[in-house]
Amino acid sequence: MLHAKPRAGLRARALPVLLMSAVAAAFGGLVALAPVEADRPAVLAYADVAPLVLDEPAVQERAQARASRDRRMDEQARAKAVAAAKAKAAVTAKAKAAAEAKAKAAAEAKAKAAAAARTKTLAKRAAASRGALRIAGRCPVPNASFTDTWGAARGGGRSHKGTDLLAPYGSPVYAVADGRIRNASSSNGGISLYLDADNGETYFYAHNSSNVVRGGRVEAGQLIARVGSTGNAGGTNHVHFEREVGGRSVNPYRFVRSIC
């Protein structure tokens, strides 16, 4: 509020005083007002005003701007953190997938190797089985009757060196193994033959009625002769079967039993 000495025409000069009081508010004190007329003394006015205060809406706007900026920075920081986490997760997932693929490939390779090993083992077993069949062949005289007469006394001080396979006249006689045939005949053995087998053993067939194969290679199970009673068979149709291992005669009974 303004306080001044009353003078004539004060109201006519009120507007300039009010304007100057606004300036005085900034200084919070006394302001000298210039006279309107040159011959009149200056009017002293006292401004009783409150200290200057910033506009509250402007302060709030600046605070809101700072808060908005802080929120943007926080959001950006969170976005960066999320992106980094996603990138790390992607790297981890890729590494995991690679490890799983490697493990799967290793397992498949192991399974494949195991399958190959099994196949190889089965092939070996099959080959061994075929080899055993080719070595053992088939029974020299199927359905023949025989007993173990190894070492039994024979005429002239001899002993029996084989197994007699009794069968009807003309029954087929087969090779027990792959090998080569050698024909042989004698007064004791009659029509006979040797089978020099690929397994290193030699087999002797005696008292045949005929030899179907007179030489050359044969396979196990191949027809090579027919049952008879030639030589000193005494009229009994049979095949005298001998087995030599390492050039020495061995009892063929168990061998014949295993294949007949």
Task: Explain what you see.
This protein has 260 residues and is an alpha+beta fold. The protein folds into three domains: 2-47, no CATH class; 70-136; 153-259, Glucose Permease (Domain IIA) (Distorted Sandwich). Helix content is 39%, strand content 26%. The protein is built from three helices and 14 strands. Strands 6, 7, 8, 9, 10, 11, 12, 13 and 14 form a nine-stranded antiparallel beta sheet that branches. The chain has a three-stranded antiparallel beta sheet with strand order 1-3-2, covered by helices on one side. A two-stranded antiparallel sheet has the order 4-5. The termini are far apart. 19% of the residues are buried. Residues 1-8, 29-34, 42-47 and 128-136 have low confidence and may be disordered.
Summarize the structure in short.
The protein has 260 residues and is α+β, with helices and mostly antiparallel strands. Helices cover 39% and strands 26% of the residues.
Query: So what's the CATH class of the largest domain?
Result: Mainly Beta
Helical fraction equals 25-40%
Biggest sheet descriptor: 9 strands, antiparallel
Number of helices: 3
CA gyration radius, whole angstroms = 65 Å
Q: Which blocks of ≥5 consecutive residues have pLDDT under 50?
A: 1-8, 29-34, 42-47, 128-136
- Count of strand segments: 14
For CATH, the homologous superfamily of the largest domain is named as: Glucose Permease (Domain IIA)
In the CATH scheme, what's the topology name of the largest domain? Glucose Permease (Domain IIA)
Oligomer: single chain
What's the average pLDDT? 80
